[in-house]
Amino acid sequence: MASAEPTPNKPTNIELQFIQPLADQDEEKTQESLELSTTELEADSPLSAPTDNEQVHLDTASQIDSIEASGAMFQAVGVITGEVNLNSEGSSTVTIGRNQYPLFYIGRKLKVFEALKKEIETTGNHTQRLVVYPKAIHFPRREQPHQIAFQLVGFDRGRFQETISGELEDLEFKLSGLWQFIPVCQTPCISVFRNFTRERLEYIKQAEPARKVKFMKASHVPMLWKDAPVRPFRFNPKIPKLEQGHALFVTLKAKFLPGRDVFGFVALTAPPQDTAPRFLKASKQDKATVQQSAKKTQPKGHRPYKKEQLSSNPLPKPIPKKKPQVIEGETDK
Questions:
Q1: Spatial strand order in the sheet of 279-282
Q2: How far from 275 is each of 16, 200, 248, 294, CA to CA, in Å?
Q3: Which of 10, 129, 235, 246 has the greatest number of beta carbons closer than 10 A?
Q4: pLDDT tens digits, residue range 141-178?
């Protein structure tokens, strides 16, 4: 959990990034594919963070200050209306039209879950307007379609028009992130990382690699944007790293398209930015450590040797056929 106090551990590398160019995508492809293949959902909001080993030039730093002064931040939040089926054991769902999606909550949102449950029990109305974070689950093979789930943030009784639910229409989302392709998705994505704060940085310094990588895991929201003013960044292994360019930071409204499981562009709410706000991202070293640990704990199937197979499962001996008795006076044909 993002709010849990970590057990002090040996500090490991943290990437504090101001721009997330995917120029090192070829090196990270294996680790990222593994990371995105898990069906375990992120235990916090889809915001993220960064690295000590990169130098930031003064002009870049001034751009960052101006962006953060304007309130720019990584964000993915929206409103959906659907038939809610709650289950305290973790298999809750929300049905939008004819399409059913997993609905989950984190520990610190238990009160929201309980309040929603009580609202449904009291009114008998399972159709609810929910404030949610979108979660896209990607898999190592690009041809394997991603899956969409929603993390419960709150629900709207129509009394709080000054909140996010009053700003957005049904199925509408605010998305702010890096506009780019990722290795495991054929559709370009808005990559939403965990926003940088000093408190989060201190937490990460003490956390063990597995918890750290999970905490800093980004949310890559698949996005259809036909007439985008800027192209989504795509890593090209044939181009030198310094000529790759980088993903731009975009802030927009999008609409979730049920059944297609993607988001469609509605409108820009700010001009695309060349420099992104500071965010947190797990280092290659920590990703590699978690990957190696996962391989060690993975059970290995045992294939017995041929001799073992014969000794443990001996084949039955064939039963010899009895020769027919010859009756006196008859001859064999």
A1: 14-17, 279-282, 194-195
A2: 14, 21, 7, 35
A3: 235
A4: 888 999 999 999 999 876 555 578 788 999 999 999 99
